[in-house]
Amino acid sequence: MPDEWGQMTDHTIHAIRLSSVSRRYGAGDSAVTALDEVSLAFPRGTFTAVMGPSGSGKSTLLQCAAGLDRPTSGSVVVGGTELTGLSERRLTLLRRERIGFVFQAFNLLPSLTAAQNVALPLRLAGRRPSRSRVREALAQVGLADRGRHRPAELSGGQQQRVALARALITRPEVLFGDEPTGALDSRTGRDVLALLRGMVDREGQTVVMVTHDPVAAARADRVVFLVDGRPAGELAGADADAIATRMTRLEAAPC
Ligand SMILES: Nc1ncnc2c1ncn2[C@@H]1O[C@H](COP(=O)(O)OP(=O)(O)OP(=O)(O)O)[C@@H](O)[C@H]1O
Ligand SMILES: [Mg+2]
Predict the structure, then answer these.
(1) Cβ proximity of 135 and 169 under 8 Å
(2) For a designed S-S bond to 218, which of 37, 77, 88, 240 qualifies (C-beta 3.0 to 4.6 A apart)?
(3) Could you tell me the distance, in angstroms and rounded to a whole number, from the CA of residue 78 to the centre of ligand 1?
(4) Ligand 1 atom at minimal distance to the Cα of residue 35
């Protein structure tokens, strides 16, 4: 059964695969095609950056890949599970258990402590989070001593690290970040990037991150460019200068 074998091989190699994914918003004259037949695969244990001009579809790509939004057409496969056609309930469960997401605005619950925020995904999944597991997750992001602090008592970089610990506590198949360093100063941003890089190198975590910053993108193994909802080339192992040059060229290209 070549199809079945083909698929098994694919999802041992790729944590996630998008095939001909389109996402259109609205209808008639005001319709917008945010993603236009995008096919991309993200190999396990690699760090991919997604770049492109504002409005090119980066956030839409991440939301569709993470099961936070549904494509208008096309297919998204996460670790061998096809998301298309999953019920809302199944999709929510898959998101909780197998996907981590960090945003530019850290999105922590202000009334909960750092430890409670980190434990939240396990609680939502109906599991009782052990103290040691939460402590370990906080230690992984260098915040072992901050578990009792509330978000308002933490710096921006510390809050983003709590958000990272929260996203990673379920040991997700893929960690998505939509401009995770966008609200941080460059030094704090570098610390968060070093953590992401470490998760990939040490734990084999798969990371997909949207960024506007060529220096941040240079920490990734591969940079995927999007223009007008379509892939517009890739760079592997490029430095910040090469990435910035490519971005300038893409932004200057006529629509
Ligand atoms: N809910 C929505 N309704 C209508 N149009 C939308 C919606 N969300 C996004 N769009 C449109 O889809 C396109 C892609 O948006 P998206 O947010 O994915 O871009 P982006 O690359 O993340 O941009 P930025 O760098 O500014 O964050 C844009 O033209 C946007 O206006
Ligand atoms: Mg965006």
Answers:
(1) no
(2) 240
(3) 23
(4) 14
Domains of the chain, residue spans? 14-112+171-252
Ligand nearest to the CA of 58: 1
- Calpha distance 91→68 (Å, rounded): 9
Please work out whether the CB of residue 54 comes within 6 Å of at least one atom of ligand 1.
yes
Superfamily of domain 14-112+171-252: P-loop containing nucleotide triphosphate hydrolases (3.40.50.300)
pTM over 0.90: yes
Q: How far is the CA of 234 from the centre of ligand 1 (A)?
A: 21
63 sits in which H/E element:
helix 58-65
Q: What token pair was written down for 71?
A: 């494509």
How many angstroms from the chain centroid is the CA of residue 67? Answer: 11
Indicate the Cα dihedral angle 6, 11, 12, 16, nearest 10°.
Answer: 150
Residues 96-107 pLDDT 10s: 889 999 998 989
- Compute the distance from residue 8 Cα to the ligand 2 centre, in Å: 32
Q: Give the pLDDT band (50/70/90) at residue 1.
A: very low
**What is the C-alpha to C-alpha distance for residues 71 and 24, in angstroms, rounded to an integer?**
8
Q: Give the H or E element holding residue 167.
A: helix 156-168
Distance CA 96, CA 203 (A): 19
55 lines ligand 1 (CB under 6 A): yes
13 in contact with ligand 1, CB cutoff 6 A: no
